[in-house]
Protein backbone atom coordinates (compact mmCIF):
# COMPACT_ATOMS: atom_id res chain seq x y z
CA UNK A 1 0.00 0.00 0.00
CA UNK A 2 2.76 2.42 0.99
CA UNK A 3 4.74 1.63 -2.13
CA UNK A 4 1.68 2.35 -4.26
CA UNK A 5 1.18 5.70 -2.56
CA UNK A 6 4.84 6.58 -3.05
CA UNK A 7 4.60 5.72 -6.73
CA UNK A 8 1.54 7.93 -7.15
CA UNK A 9 3.27 10.75 -5.30
CA UNK A 10 6.32 10.30 -7.51
CA UNK A 11 4.24 10.42 -10.67
CA UNK A 12 2.39 13.52 -9.50
CA UNK A 13 5.68 15.20 -8.58
CA UNK A 14 7.11 14.37 -12.00
CA UNK A 15 4.01 15.80 -13.68
CA UNK A 16 4.26 18.96 -11.56
CA UNK A 17 7.93 19.39 -12.48
CA UNK A 18 7.11 18.86 -16.15
CA UNK A 19 4.31 21.43 -16.03
CA UNK A 20 6.63 23.90 -14.32
CA UNK A 21 9.37 23.38 -16.90
CA UNK A 22 6.93 23.76 -19.80
CA UNK A 23 5.53 26.93 -18.20
CA UNK A 24 9.04 28.33 -17.77
CA UNK A 25 9.95 27.55 -21.39
CA UNK A 26 6.76 29.15 -22.68
CA UNK A 27 7.31 32.22 -20.51
CA UNK A 28 10.82 32.62 -21.91
CA UNK A 29 9.75 32.00 -25.48
CA UNK A 30 6.59 34.11 -25.59
CA UNK A 31 7.31 37.01 -23.25
CA UNK A 32 7.22 39.47 -26.16
CA UNK A 33 3.63 38.42 -26.83
CA UNK A 34 2.80 38.72 -23.14
CA UNK A 35 4.20 42.26 -23.00
CA UNK A 36 2.82 43.23 -26.42
CA UNK A 37 -0.51 41.43 -27.05
CA UNK A 38 -0.90 43.36 -30.34
CA UNK A 39 -4.65 43.70 -30.90
CA UNK A 40 -5.59 44.20 -34.53
CA UNK A 41 -8.16 46.71 -35.75
CA UNK A 42 -8.76 48.86 -38.83
CA UNK A 43 -7.38 52.38 -38.76
CA UNK A 44 -10.20 54.86 -39.34
CA UNK A 45 -9.76 58.12 -41.16
CA UNK A 46 -9.73 60.93 -38.54
CA UNK A 47 -12.30 62.85 -40.57
CA UNK A 48 -14.88 60.09 -40.12
CA UNK A 49 -14.62 60.66 -36.34
CA UNK A 50 -15.05 64.41 -36.57
CA UNK A 51 -11.36 65.37 -36.68
CA UNK A 52 -11.58 67.14 -40.01
CA UNK A 53 -8.01 68.46 -40.13
CA UNK A 54 -6.35 65.16 -39.18
CA UNK A 55 -4.89 62.70 -41.64
CA UNK A 56 -3.82 59.09 -41.82
CA UNK A 57 -0.12 58.59 -42.29
CA UNK A 58 2.04 55.68 -43.42
CA UNK A 59 5.76 55.40 -42.76
CA UNK A 60 8.50 52.81 -42.72
CA UNK A 61 10.87 52.23 -39.82
CA UNK A 62 14.64 51.97 -40.08
CA UNK A 63 14.31 48.16 -40.05
CA UNK A 64 11.76 48.16 -42.85
CA UNK A 65 8.42 47.76 -41.04
CA UNK A 66 5.39 49.59 -42.47
CA UNK A 67 3.43 51.49 -39.81
CA UNK A 68 0.09 53.27 -39.90
CA UNK A 69 -0.94 56.22 -37.78
CA UNK A 70 -2.52 59.63 -37.41
CA UNK A 71 -1.09 63.09 -37.65
CA UNK A 72 -3.20 65.95 -36.25
CA UNK A 73 -1.64 69.30 -37.21
CA UNK A 74 -1.67 72.24 -34.80
CA UNK A 75 -5.12 73.76 -34.55
CA UNK A 76 -5.06 76.62 -35.17
CA UNK A 77 -2.06 76.48 -37.45
CA UNK A 78 0.79 78.83 -36.54
CA UNK A 79 1.10 82.13 -38.37
CA UNK A 80 3.25 82.24 -41.50
CA UNK A 81 6.91 81.99 -40.57
CA UNK A 82 6.10 80.57 -37.13
CA UNK A 83 6.08 77.04 -35.74
CA UNK A 84 4.16 75.16 -33.07
CA UNK A 85 5.03 72.47 -30.49
CA UNK A 86 4.32 68.78 -31.07
CA UNK A 87 3.28 65.81 -28.95
CA UNK A 88 3.87 62.12 -29.74
CA UNK A 89 1.44 59.73 -28.05
CA UNK A 90 2.41 56.15 -27.09
CA UNK A 91 -0.55 54.08 -25.91
CA UNK A 92 -0.93 51.00 -23.68
CA UNK A 93 -0.44 47.38 -24.62
CA UNK A 94 -4.09 46.44 -25.29
CA UNK A 95 -4.91 49.64 -27.17
CA UNK A 96 -5.00 50.79 -30.77
CA UNK A 97 -5.64 54.16 -32.39
CA UNK A 98 -9.18 53.11 -33.19
CA UNK A 99 -9.83 52.22 -29.56
CA UNK A 100 -8.46 55.42 -28.06
CA UNK A 101 -9.67 57.84 -30.76
CA UNK A 102 -12.12 59.61 -28.40
CA UNK A 103 -9.32 60.11 -25.86
CA UNK A 104 -6.98 61.53 -28.49
CA UNK A 105 -9.69 63.93 -29.60
CA UNK A 106 -10.40 65.07 -26.04
CA UNK A 107 -6.75 65.41 -25.01
CA UNK A 108 -5.59 67.17 -28.18
CA UNK A 109 -3.87 70.38 -26.98
CA UNK A 110 -4.84 73.60 -28.71
CA UNK A 111 -2.15 74.86 -31.09
CA UNK A 112 -0.03 71.69 -30.76
CA UNK A 113 0.65 69.10 -33.44
CA UNK A 114 -0.10 65.56 -32.33
CA UNK A 115 0.74 62.16 -33.74
CA UNK A 116 0.20 58.56 -32.77
CA UNK A 117 1.30 55.35 -34.49
CA UNK A 118 -0.04 51.86 -34.15
CA UNK A 119 3.03 49.93 -33.01
CA UNK A 120 4.24 47.14 -35.28
CA UNK A 121 1.74 44.29 -35.12
CA UNK A 122 -0.94 46.57 -33.64
CA UNK A 123 -3.98 48.01 -35.39
CA UNK A 124 -3.23 48.05 -39.09
CA UNK A 125 0.57 48.17 -38.84
CA UNK A 126 2.74 45.36 -40.20
CA UNK A 127 5.27 43.28 -38.32
CA UNK A 128 5.51 41.60 -34.92
CA UNK A 129 6.09 43.65 -31.76
CA UNK A 130 9.28 43.28 -29.74
CA UNK A 131 10.98 45.59 -27.28
CA UNK A 132 13.63 46.69 -29.76
CA UNK A 133 11.02 46.87 -32.49
CA UNK A 134 8.76 49.35 -30.70
CA UNK A 135 11.82 51.50 -30.05
CA UNK A 136 12.37 51.63 -33.82
CA UNK A 137 8.71 52.64 -34.13
CA UNK A 138 9.32 55.50 -31.70
CA UNK A 139 12.29 56.71 -33.73
CA UNK A 140 10.16 56.66 -36.88
CA UNK A 141 7.50 58.72 -35.11
CA UNK A 142 10.13 61.27 -34.08
CA UNK A 143 11.54 61.50 -37.60
CA UNK A 144 8.08 62.10 -39.01
CA UNK A 145 7.21 64.77 -36.47
CA UNK A 146 10.42 66.79 -36.87
CA UNK A 147 9.97 66.72 -40.66
CA UNK A 148 6.70 68.68 -40.44
CA UNK A 149 7.39 72.27 -41.43
CA UNK A 150 4.87 73.68 -38.94
CA UNK A 151 6.45 71.88 -35.96
CA UNK A 152 9.25 73.34 -33.86
CA UNK A 153 11.68 70.44 -33.53
CA UNK A 154 12.97 71.83 -30.22
CA UNK A 155 9.48 71.70 -28.66
CA UNK A 156 8.35 68.09 -29.00
CA UNK A 157 6.96 66.22 -26.02
CA UNK A 158 6.07 62.57 -25.47
CA UNK A 159 3.19 60.92 -23.67
CA UNK A 160 3.30 57.24 -22.71
CA UNK A 161 0.72 55.07 -20.97
CA UNK A 162 1.46 51.66 -19.42
CA UNK A 163 3.75 49.83 -21.89
CA UNK A 164 3.89 53.12 -23.80
CA UNK A 165 5.77 54.62 -20.85
CA UNK A 166 8.77 52.48 -21.78
CA UNK A 167 8.56 53.66 -25.40
CA UNK A 168 8.22 57.31 -24.36
CA UNK A 169 11.15 57.10 -21.94
CA UNK A 170 13.30 55.38 -24.56
CA UNK A 171 12.68 58.21 -27.01
CA UNK A 172 13.20 60.86 -24.32
CA UNK A 173 16.67 59.48 -23.61
CA UNK A 174 17.63 59.08 -27.27
CA UNK A 175 16.22 62.26 -28.82
CA UNK A 176 15.97 65.90 -27.64
CA UNK A 177 12.46 65.56 -26.22
CA UNK A 178 11.23 68.68 -24.41
CA UNK A 179 8.79 67.19 -21.85
CA UNK A 180 7.59 63.75 -20.73
CA UNK A 181 4.16 62.72 -19.43
CA UNK A 182 3.58 59.17 -18.20
CA UNK A 183 0.43 57.36 -17.14
CA UNK A 184 0.60 54.17 -15.04
CA UNK A 185 4.31 53.49 -15.65
CA UNK A 186 5.89 50.32 -14.30
CA UNK A 187 9.39 50.44 -12.86
CA UNK A 188 10.92 47.70 -15.04
CA UNK A 189 10.16 44.48 -16.85
CA UNK A 190 11.88 42.48 -14.12
CA UNK A 191 9.77 44.16 -11.45
CA UNK A 192 6.61 43.34 -13.39
CA UNK A 193 7.73 39.72 -13.75
CA UNK A 194 8.39 39.53 -10.02
CA UNK A 195 4.99 41.12 -9.32
CA UNK A 196 2.97 38.73 -11.50
CA UNK A 197 5.14 35.65 -12.07
CA UNK A 198 7.10 35.32 -8.84
CA UNK A 199 6.94 31.52 -9.14
CA UNK A 200 9.31 31.71 -12.11
CA UNK A 201 13.02 32.57 -11.91
CA UNK A 202 13.85 36.15 -12.94
CA UNK A 203 16.74 34.78 -15.01
CA UNK A 204 14.13 33.88 -17.63
CA UNK A 205 13.37 37.56 -18.23
CA UNK A 206 14.77 38.66 -21.60
CA UNK A 207 12.96 41.99 -21.78
CA UNK A 208 14.45 45.02 -20.07
CA UNK A 209 11.79 47.77 -20.26
CA UNK A 210 13.72 49.49 -17.49
CA UNK A 211 11.75 52.66 -16.90
CA UNK A 212 13.48 53.57 -13.66
CA UNK A 213 16.93 53.48 -15.24
CA UNK A 214 15.81 55.56 -18.21
CA UNK A 215 13.96 58.03 -15.99
CA UNK A 216 17.21 58.63 -14.11
CA UNK A 217 18.68 59.92 -17.38
CA UNK A 218 15.97 62.55 -17.93
CA UNK A 219 16.94 66.21 -17.86
CA UNK A 220 13.51 67.55 -18.86
CA UNK A 221 10.23 68.16 -16.99
CA UNK A 222 8.31 64.99 -16.09
CA UNK A 223 4.68 64.54 -15.02
CA UNK A 224 3.35 61.17 -13.81
CA UNK A 225 -0.26 60.03 -13.42
CA UNK A 226 -1.06 56.81 -11.59
CA UNK A 227 -4.17 55.08 -10.29
CA UNK A 228 -4.02 54.62 -6.53
CA UNK A 229 -5.69 51.20 -6.85
CA UNK A 230 -3.57 49.92 -9.73
CA UNK A 231 -3.16 46.14 -9.36
CA UNK A 232 -1.19 45.63 -12.58
CA UNK A 233 1.59 48.20 -12.08
CA UNK A 234 1.15 49.18 -8.41
CA UNK A 235 1.29 52.87 -7.61
CA UNK A 236 4.62 52.33 -5.83
CA UNK A 237 6.11 51.69 -9.27
CA UNK A 238 4.82 55.05 -10.47
CA UNK A 239 6.41 56.73 -7.47
CA UNK A 240 9.72 54.96 -8.19
CA UNK A 241 9.73 56.23 -11.78
CA UNK A 242 8.71 59.73 -10.64
CA UNK A 243 11.54 59.86 -8.07
CA UNK A 244 14.07 58.57 -10.58
CA UNK A 245 13.05 61.21 -13.10
CA UNK A 246 12.80 64.00 -10.49
CA UNK A 247 9.19 64.54 -11.60
CA UNK A 248 7.59 67.92 -11.12
CA UNK A 249 4.72 66.04 -9.53
CA UNK A 250 2.94 62.70 -9.44
CA UNK A 251 -0.83 62.80 -9.67
CA UNK A 252 -2.33 59.88 -7.75
CA UNK A 253 -5.90 59.26 -8.87
CA UNK A 254 -7.99 57.92 -5.97
CA UNK A 255 -10.14 54.95 -6.91
CA UNK A 256 -8.47 54.42 -10.29
CA UNK A 257 -6.91 51.15 -11.37
CA UNK A 258 -4.58 50.57 -14.29
CA UNK A 259 -6.98 51.03 -17.20
CA UNK A 260 -9.46 53.65 -16.01
CA UNK A 261 -7.30 56.65 -15.12
CA UNK A 262 -8.88 58.78 -17.87
CA UNK A 263 -12.42 57.97 -16.76
CA UNK A 264 -11.82 58.27 -13.02
CA UNK A 265 -9.45 61.23 -13.30
CA UNK A 266 -11.89 63.08 -15.53
CA UNK A 267 -11.54 66.83 -15.80
CA UNK A 268 -8.85 66.89 -13.10
CA UNK A 269 -6.62 64.66 -15.22
CA UNK A 270 -7.22 66.73 -18.35
CA UNK A 271 -6.53 70.00 -16.53
CA UNK A 272 -3.18 68.81 -15.14
CA UNK A 273 -2.25 67.37 -18.55
CA UNK A 274 -2.97 70.58 -20.46
CA UNK A 275 -1.53 72.91 -17.79
CA UNK A 276 1.73 70.96 -17.72
CA UNK A 277 2.09 71.15 -21.50
CA UNK A 278 1.25 74.84 -21.56
CA UNK A 279 3.88 75.60 -18.91
CA UNK A 280 6.66 73.37 -20.22
CA UNK A 281 6.21 72.75 -23.94
Question: What does it look like?
Answer:
- With 281 residues, the chain is of the alpha/beta class.
- It folds into 2 domains: 1-35; 38-280, Alpha/Beta hydrolase fold, catalytic domain (Rossmann fold, 3-Layer(aba) Sandwich), CATH 3.40.50.
- 41% of the residues lie in helices and 18% in strands.
- It is built from 9 helices and 8 strands.
- It has helices at 2-29, 31-35, 97-107, 131-146, 163-174, 189-196, 211-216, 235-244, 261-280, and strands at residues 55-60, 66-72, 84-90, 113-117, 151-161, 180-183, 222-227, 249-253.
- Strands 1-2-4-3-5-6-7-8 form an 8-stranded mixed β-sheet, sandwiched between helices.
- Helix 8 links the parallel strand 7 (222-227) and strand 8.
- Helix 4 (131-146) packs across helix 5.
- Residues 16-28 have low confidence and may be disordered.
Amino acid sequence: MLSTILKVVGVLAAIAVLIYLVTAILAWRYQDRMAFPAPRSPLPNPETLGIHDGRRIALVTSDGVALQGWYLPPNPLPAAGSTAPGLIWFYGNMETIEGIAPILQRFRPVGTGMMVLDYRGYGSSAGEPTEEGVYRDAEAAWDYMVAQSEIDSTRIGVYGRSIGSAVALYLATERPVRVVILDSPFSSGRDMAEQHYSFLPLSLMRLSLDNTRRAEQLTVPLLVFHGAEDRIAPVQMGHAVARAGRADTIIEIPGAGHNDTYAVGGDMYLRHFLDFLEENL
